[in-house]
Write a structure and sequence with these properties.
Elements: H1 8-17, H2 35-43, H3 46-51, E1 68-72, H4 76-87, E2 91-95, H5 99-119, H6 127-132, E3 134-137, E4 148-151, H7 157-170, E5 176-179, H8 186-190, E6 199-203, E7 213-218, H9 224-236, E8 240-245, H10 252-268, H11 274-284, H12 291-298, H13 300-314, H14 323-330
Parallel strand pairs: 1-2, 1-4, 2-3, 4-5, 5-6, 7-8
Antiparallel strand pairs: 6-7
Helix pairs in contact: 2-5, 10-12, 10-13
Length: 346
């Protein structure tokens, strides 16, 4: 997948893949983020670093078994994974097929590291040194030296399928591939590679550097050794994991997407406006974010894709997407990233 976007071959390959590999925001951030608290959490105030068990920052991580890590997809999740890796002493190769996406990723990372330094004046962190640990490239062949790969491309099977065919060709046979997905079957991904025993799901949450737990998914062919590898890899990022089985949506999104979809039905049916739906969850259940605020953060297009995957996978009407959700996506009301979803952000 070594294409330079400036050359014709690269452009053709991008068109075949159907566009950028950006993954959407993907997952809910820490509930209740807002104002100063949001900035502290996002950029790693020491209080939150302790909470998330970051054992090293801008230094040598505890597990350098995986010195160079390939990160595929430079959207929000991919950038977060790369930042977390660099802050724990790893070298990261961040790959996307679009120069524009990579430029945005560089800017997002610089902003995040600048804020980190601002809120951690005594940490000794050198944002530039962290930045230098990440290589931004459209050349997939740079993954040939990776010791581990985390894939974060969009939740589109036609794109993922092609990515894994190339990863399988480029990477060493002993390298484990982690699928950062919220809905697509790990077993299905494994089926298009020659290393199905070394494919494991890693469902990171957003913002990646600040979330201490990862939902790890065991595919049908995933071996206990691969699960152990995944645990060691995540420990090197300062994280723990919970291992679940491979069913559509796994645990977190099978519950979350159903909740969000039903909340959309409530708004559609005129039972309550979006603000009141969210307020009920925040005030009655002490949730820091309501389901529709969470949907706006993730991106309504991502929500719709995930719900559709669940509907197709289970053939169960309880997962039928709310017509209002479809209409909003068609209208370009995607949530925070478009400035308006169930709430307005302009």
């Amino acid at each position: 997948m070594a294409e330079d976007p400036a050359d014709g071959a690269g452009g053709a390959r991008r068109r075949r893949r159907g566009g950028s590999h950006r993954a959407a925001a993907g997952e809910p951030r820490l509930p209740g983020q807002g104002g100063a608290g949001r900035a502290l959490r996002r950029h790693g105030h020491p209080q939150h670093l302790r909470r998330t068990r970051h054992r090293t920052v801008n230094g040598v991580g505890p597990a350098m078994e995986f010195k160079t890590v390939g990160v595929v997809g430079a959207g929000v999740m991919g950038v977060g994974v790369a930042q977390n890796l660099a802050q724990t002493g790893h070298q990261a190769v961040l790959v996307d097929i679009s120069d524009e996406v990579l430029d945005n990723a560089r800017q997002e990372l610089r902003n995040s590291l600048r804020a980190f330094a601002l809120f951690n004046r005594n940490s000794g962190v050198d944002p530039e040194a962290v930045f230098e640990k990440i290589e931004f490239t459209t050349d997939y062949e740079r993954l040939a030296g990776a010791d581990f790969v985390v894939e974060n491309v969009t939740e589109d099977w036609s794109i993922k399928q092609k990515v894994y065919a190339d990863l399988d060709r480029i990477c060493r046979p002993d390298v484990t591939f982690a699928v950062n997905t919220s809905a697509i079957s790990i077993t299905r991904v494994a089926s298009v590679t020659k290393r199905p025993r070394q494919i494991v799901g890693m469902h990171f949450m957003n913002p990646v550097p600040m979330k201490p737990m990862v939902e790890v998914i065991r595919g049908h062919h995933t071996t206990p050794e691969t699960i152990d590898t995944a645990r060691r890899f995540l420990a090197g990022m300062g994280k723990e994991c919970i291992v679940v089985e491979d069913v559509p949506g796994f645990v977190s999104n099978r519950v979350l997407m159903l909740t969000i979809n039903e909340a959309a039905f409530l708004v559609q049916d005129g039972v309550a406006p979006a603000a009141d739906v969210d307020r009920i969850f925040k005030t009655c259940f002490d949730h820091r974010m309501g389901p529709l605020e969470t949907a706006d953060l993730i991106g309504l297009d991502t929500i719709l894709k995930s719900v559709e995957v669940l509907y197709e996978s289970f053939n169960d009407s309880k997962y039928r997407p709310a017509p209002l959700l479809k209409k909003m996506v068609a209208a370009g009301l995607l949530g925070r990233k478009s400035g308006e979803g169930f709430h307005k952000y302009r």
